[in-house]
Write a structure and sequence with these properties.
Layout lengths: L1 H7 L5 H47 L2 H13 L5 E5 L2 E2 L3 E11 L14 E11 L3
Antiparallel strand pairs: 1-3, 2-3, 3-4
Helix pairs in contact: 2-3
Length: 131
């Protein structure tokens, strides 16, 4: 009985099994954190683009220039965020909105024939045209 009990209580290799079990969990946690960081970056970028569009529109009163300024900021960010539009409503007092599509970073595009899944975000701001 002593030899059988000694073999049952032998823990050699248990650390390897625990390590192999934890590696996917650690990678999943890192991927979720990275997606959160990429999403936060895209939200901050959209807010910045909306502010830039409002600044340009308040000086020029041209929607095309304001939209181009917002698009330039969003396009400089990278592949995980795409510009969707920047509608500006109003004449003297105006509302500017910048819409972006934020892609999921770690999903492979080859598995999705219509492109990577994404979610949209719209940043709004308002202002007054300077005369």
């Amino acid at each position: 009985m002593g030899k059988w009990l000694k073999e049952r209580l032998d823990e050699r290799g248990s650390m390897t099994i625990e390590f192999i079990g934890m590696v996917p969990l650690v990678f999943l946690t890192i991927m979720i954190a990275w997606q959160f960081i990429a999403g936060a970056h895209a939200v901050i970028l959209a807010e910045s683009a909306a502010n830039e569009a409002a600044k340009v529109y308040s000086v020029t009163a041209e929607t095309s220039e304001a939209s181009a300024a917002a698009e330039e900021i969003v396009n400089a960010a990278g592949d995980h965020v795409r510009f969707s539009g920047a509608p500006i409503t109003g004449t003297d007092q105006f509302q500017a909105a910048v819409s972006v599509e934020i892609s999921f970073v770690f999903l492979p595009g080859k598995f999705f024939p219509n492109g990577k899944p994404s979610f949209s975000y719209t940043a709004d701001t308002s202002g007054k045209v300077i005369k």
